[in-house]
Amino acid sequence: MTRRAVVFVALFLLLRAPAAAADQVVVLTSGAFTAAYLELSPSFERATGHTLKTAATTMGTGADAIPSRLARGEAADVVIVAADALERLIADGLVRRGSRVDLARSAIAMAVRAGARKPDISSVEALRRTLLDAESVAYSASVSGDYLVGDLFPSLGIAGEMAAKGRRIERERVGDVVARGEAAIGFQQLSELQPIRGIDIVGVLPAGAQRVTVFAAGLAANAAHVDAARALIAFLSSRAAAPAIARSGMEPVAR
Predict the structure, then answer these.
(1) Does residue 144 contact residue 187 with C-beta atoms inside 8 Å?
(2) pTM of structure
(3) Residues β-bridged to residue 115
């Protein structure tokens, strides 16, 4: 059998038992998994008859953040966020205990405006020099930004310098800010930088500076369509979904 046929059969066997009625599954997903999810969702809808209503949002702060939406009781069936964040949502009673399924591993990358010189980040010391030389630095308001500000910059001894010229991006992708020339360099999960036009990705952070994050899915505490939601999570964590996850810039955690 060809690879394509194997993938098709795996998908068919996973999803061939249709639900008694088609459901609309509400999905809250943070940005890092969005590209893979959007590529995979049409296959799930065609195979099951379910439809997916999606909010691509963030684990950051504000009214649109995933914790805020769940806390005020917004409809949700599936939540896809960093595993540590998912565990906090479970502890807060916003995601069902025992429902966590790991989907992918994600690395932090750096980007510059398209055509700009690509600085050296091949080692921890080279990255430190690049950060000090940069006129401005943008980073996300979510997982990768929290790591940079809370761990990496202090460990490099440059927290003060970065506080003076760093910018935390709240409501858009870091790559969009870099593409407009509003920051000389920007950091975010590789899967969130790849779809952005107008930037060049320099590469992922070097060993010793990198923080790989596991992204996972779980059932929202108020999930109304549990069977359909579980089917979606099973699909996203299956080998059939792995190629799309890899194309998005993440490493699949395929079962």
Answers:
(1) yes
(2) 0.86
(3) none
